[in-house]
Design a protein that fits this description.
single chain; 92 residues; mainly alpha
Amino acid sequence: MISTGRARRREKVSATVDADLLATVDQFVVEHPETSRSSVFDDALRLWSANERAKAIAEQYEGDNGVPPDEWAAWTNIRDAAANVTLTKARQ
């Protein structure tokens, strides 16, 4: 993590978590004394956030975004033709 020299504002929260998951976190913290429950939860939330962004990006690219089918087909043909030209040049 990059430090800017300023302390980051942290919020204290209360959450109910699965006992087995918490035991796993606590065991990890015992085995890695440089960590804490908070750092493990921070990492978990960062991974969750990254996963949510990846899902949103995938949904954006999988949908038609309201583009009429004939226009979508035309752009697909242009893309495929451009890829074909690029690949043909690369093979030469």
